[in-house]
Design brief:
This protein has 370 residues and is α+β, with helices and mostly antiparallel strands. The protein has 14 helices and twelve strands. The protein folds into two domains: 4-167, no CATH class; 184-363. Helices cover 51% and strands 14% of the residues. The strands form four sheets. The protein has a five-stranded mixed beta sheet with strand order 8-9-10-11-12, with helices on both faces. Strands 1-3-2 form a three-stranded antiparallel beta sheet. Strands 4-5 form a two-stranded antiparallel ribbon.
Length: 370
């Protein structure tokens, strides 16, 4: 696989190994894997970064270098291993790593690596569950070129550092663009509107889509009111308020947005996998839920597709009907765009931009200015 960052990756190899760089790359499954995980480097902030698995490699290889095993051949096999708590803490110190979970260190890296290289017998990460100690598979760091074995540990760190730097640059440009849009004259909305519309396209990063969806819907609903009270004489008019309940795309089993005072739940998704929809419905005990779907397909088509897949999975009509009845609303990309334009027409563009900037900084651990 060749992509824009492959050039930077191979430049690092050339600096380290000169004329043997191409041979090193061809002989290394680890470098080829890293190459696949860095394809989003120069696609801008809207492309998802693959930090979890890369950082699992990074912290273990960094530990390997810190102990100088690359200088002393054959000694790593006697190493007592790196402590999980130390590795985990180090991951979270790295750029974009503050909220990373333990999945990559424990199994996800090994699982994905095996999909790419099923013939490699030993996984990248070796783990002793009893002692909670970890090692990196040194065989992946020793690349045989001709009659020599070359150690690629140092260049692996350099490559991942370069990738992270590229992603940081892309995200800083993303934030800068939004900050510039905030200062536009009120009469010149075109650039701001076009920029935001570009962030709800089906091909953008799932996290960015969720953040922008939240900014749009929060502004769209906030001036709508309902009357609440325990008796007719004491009704109170309240604005609809949308709250974001956690980090985007966190796989934490949570619901993405909740609305007060109606108690509506919203879940952002990029799939029509019926299992995912019904899992979301099950985890809130079949409470009605609105799905915000990163798709341009018509809502009727999306609902029909979900129902067809549901009927395939559940041959009982009553079960399918119960689940489908829990889908309160489907908001697709065209509906989201309509609601954005309506909110802009009411003068809410600045608040949408402010919210997207705020949530983006939280999501990507972007430091606030003092």
């Amino acid at each position: 696989m060749e992509h824009s960052f492959t050039v930077a990756l191979k430049a690092k190899l050339k600096a380290a190994f000169g004329a043997k760089a191409e041979q090193v790359y061809a002989a290394s499954q680890l470098l080829q894997y890293i190459n696949t995980k860095t394809k989003s480097a120069e696609r801008g902030s809207k492309s998802r970064g693959s930090f979890a698995n890369l950082y699992a490699i990074y912290v273990l290889v960094e530990d390997y270098l810190a102990q100088e095993f690359h200088k002393h051949k054959g000694t790593y096999k006697d190493y007592e291993g790196a402590q999980f708590s130390v590795l985990f803490a180090r991951q979270r110190e790295l750029p974009f790593g503050q909220k990373l979970q333990n999945h990559a260190l424990n199994h996800r890296l090994n699982e994905e690596f095996h999909k790419y290289f099923p013939t490699v017998q030993t996984p990248p990460i070796i783990r002793d569950v009893d002692t909670n100690k970890y090692w990196f598979n040194e065989k992946l760091l020793l690349v045989e070129v001709g009659k020599k074995k070359l150690n690629i540990a140092a260049v692996v760190i350099e490559i991942i550092d370069a990738y992270v730097s590229a992603k940081q640059d892309a995200f800083e440009k993303f934030i800068e663009s939004f900050e510039k849009l905030k200062s536009l004259e009120k009469g010149d909305k075109t650039s701001a509107v076009e920029f935001v519309l570009g962030l709800v396209a089906p091909n953008v990063d799932a996290r960015v889509f969720e953040i922008v969806s939240y900014g749009i819907l929060k502004s769209y609903y906030h001036n709508q009111t309902v009357f609440f009270g325990f008796d007719l004489e004491n009704l109170k008019e309240e604005n609809l308020m949308l709250y974001k309940t956690g980090r985007t795309n966190a796989n934490d089993g949570g619901i993405d947005f909740v609305m007060r005072p109606l108690g509506r739940f919203f879940q952002v998704t990029e799939t029509t996998d019926v299992k995912k929809y019904f899992l979301d419905i099950d985890k809130i005990q079949k409470f009605p839920i609105t799905f915000v779907v990163k798709s341009e397909e018509p809502i009727k088509a999306l609902r029909s597709k979900i129902q067809e897949k549901a009927a395939e999975q559940y041959p009982v009509t009553a079960v399918v009907k119960k689940y489908m009845g829990c889908i309160e609303e489907i908001i697709n990309v065209p509906v989201l765009i309509d609601r954005f334009k309506e909110a802009v027409g009411k003068g809410y563009l600045p608040s949408i931009i402010d919210e997207v900037v705020r949530q983006s900084k939280v999501e990507f651990n972007y430091p606030e200015e003092e």
